[in-house]
Amino acid sequence: MSTALLEIEDLTKSFGGVHAVRNCTFSVPEGQVTGLIGPNGAGKSTVVDLVSGFGRPDSGRVTFAGEPIIGKRPDVISRLGLIRTFQTPREWRHLTVMDNVLLARRRFADESLWRSITRARRIRRAEEAERAAVRDILDRFQLAGLKNELAVRLSGGQKRLLEFARMAAAEARLIILDEPMGGVNPVLGARIGEAVRQFAAEGRTVVVVEHNLPFIEKTCHQVVVMDLGEVIAQGPFSGLRDTPRVVDAYLGMDQSHE
Amino acid sequence: MYWVSVVTEAGIFAILALGLDVIWGWSGDFDLAFYGYLALGSYLTFVLTIGKPKPPVEYILGYHLPVVLAIVLAMVVVVGLAAIIGAIALRNLRDIYFAVTTLGAVSALYLLVENYTPLFDGYNGVYGLINPGQTALNLTYNGYRIAFLVVVLVLLFLAYLLVQRLSRSPFGRMLRSVREDERASAAYGRRVFGAKYRAYLFGAALAGLTGGLFAIFISAFNPSAWTPQELLVIYAAILVGGRGNPRGVILGVFVVYIGFIELTRYLPSPASRPDFGPAMRQILIGLMIILMLRFRPEGLFRERPGLDRYPIENGAPIPASQRPAAPPGLRSEERGTSERATREGGASKAGRRRAGKTERAGG
Fold it and tell me: Are residues A184 and A215 in the same domain?
């Protein structure tokens, strides 16, 4: 097993009297796809929020690439190379598809107010190369013909693809996907699965929160199961069916749905 | 000369509106303290240039600085005040909470200036900056007013170039992304507060400049010159011209100032009702806002996203089976328009109708 890129130790968070996350401990090996599953309300999304800086845990430690990141702002964590999505695609609605992906390229130095005034021409020239790269990415996600459309005009499925195009453009070390298959049809689902596997093939580490178990089984190297804010199992998907607590909490219930 | 004065005033307010549009149009913050920055800039330009007060008049400083230097110093102080208000209001407050906080800030400033006379002589205000440099330039009174108009228009043009350059820059794009969805912006590494703060200070600097120009223009300034209504007229102008579009904002100011404020002076004003004209003006501006929101909520010029000109056809070939569903025949302008309609007009029927049309066309 490769070394852990993300390590979560004893993470705890409660909202009022509700223990959303309790002594949650697991690690994410570098270069692999880790599935984070569990019934609704298990605390999966809260863990994602705490790890990415969108929430503050009551206690616990999170290390990303050897650096403690608890208490850091989301933008700081993002700049370290951790990018997350949200349950619903959060595209920048009244910007074009091209601008959405250009922003994901994250050329922070060129976004300085002062440089934007004094170095406008140089920045514009540098951006041509960025645009070419973005066109290739849009091509990959079947969005090339929509590059000048406002993102808000896209269909739900296209917005998912735009989310993945932004992810691909961001070239992050760790990608956390919060329910990427929510409301997605099977054809698009297959494409999203491919995109996740390609991220892994490029050497990126992926954490994916998902309810779609066939997708998890096909895509993830290991799975972390949560229930009532606790991690109840961790390991390869194939081993989970033999764990009674997992079957009780999640698999049994979910299989009746299939 | 009347029209010289009207165009000068509109030009000054156009610079102000460009600054406000960076804050409201790009950054998305409905700032109600903004006119306070103009007022402070104006007061400071006076007290830095008109010399010591003669009792019973009282105000601070009372220097005899060159007017250009005074305006620059005024801008610095205005940006300093904006830095304090912005640091408090922009950190966690958004939407109505931000608006109320800035309104509170400007109300406090207003009450302070009005009641604490040693500052800017309270309700009487400051005066006496009459055509600075007129004798040095050897101009007649009218010649000076025309020269001042030219200066204002040149400054407006420079401000436009500056704002337009920013609008198309990565900074402008990043700021608009923060307006659209700041959590997503943070997830992609943007420091939301920092972005909004910089935009706020930039806008305030333009307000400070406008205050200085306004001081020269009206040569007297007191609390009645900066009631909250004045700012709403600027917001109306941005709305009419096109929020987020610098060209539209300038056009909007000229339309509102010349079309509504000045032309309504020609309305018949019966002697028994001297307030008929001003009242009518307010009604007309209100009516205009309603009509714009109903029929053209994106403004005369809509915000224009930077388009990627690289032809789609020449890109890597897209397999026919994977080609996106949207037809190339639909003009992007029409889509943008209908979209702004649904966003800004909310439940407006026209917006829904147009959105429906494009959605059907878009498949």
Answer: yes
- Helix B2-21 × helix B228-241 angle, to 10°: 80
Residues of chain A neighbouring B335 (CB-CB closer than 8 A): 149-150, 153
CA-nearest of B37, B71, B13, B40 to B200 is B37
Predicted confidence at residue A166, as pLDDT, reads 95
Residues A190 and A219 reside in one and the same domain: yes
User: Do A106 and A129 belong together in one domain?
Assistant: yes
Domain span at residue A108? 93-153
- Could you tell me if A87 and A26 lie in one domain? yes
| Ranges assigned E (strand) in A144-255 | 174-178, 205-209, 222-227, 230-235
Mean pLDDT for chain A?
90
CATH number, position A48:
3.40.50.300
Cβ neighbours around B310 below 10 Å, total:
14
Regions of chain B short of the pLDDT cut 70: 312-363
User: With an 8 Å Cβ cutoff, are A78 and B170 in contact?
Assistant: no
Which of A88, A93, A94 has the most B C-beta neighbours within 10 Å, making it the best mutation to test the interface with B?
A94
pLDDT digits (tens, 9 = 90+) for A23-77: 999 999 999 999 999 888 899 999 999 999 999 999 999 999 999 999 999 999 9
Radius of gyration of chain B (CA): 23
Q: Are residues A188 and A73 part of one domain?
A: yes
- Identify the burial level of B114 via C-beta atoms within 10 angstroms of its C-beta, where 0-12 means exposed, 13-18 middle and 19 or more buried: middle
Does B169 sit within 8 Å of A120, measured CB to CB? Answer: yes
Residues A86 and A110 reside in one and the same domain? no
pLDDT at A251: 64
The span from the CA of B249 to the CA of B17, in Å, is: 7
* B residues 21-50 lying closer than 8 A (beta carbon) to A: none
Does B333 lie at the interface with A, CB-CB under 8 angstroms?
no
Q: Three-state secondary structure along A37-60? A: ECCCCCCHHHHHHHHHCCCCCCEE
A160 within a domain of the structure (yes/no):
no
pLDDT lower than 50: segments of chain A: 1, 254-258
Shared domain check, A218 and A174: yes
Q: Which of B174, B179, B340 to mutate to test the interface with A (most CBs of A within 10 A)?
A: B174
Q: What is the pLDDT of residue A250?
A: 72
Rounded alpha-carbon distances, angstroms, from residue A66 to A5, A255, B5: 7, 38, 66
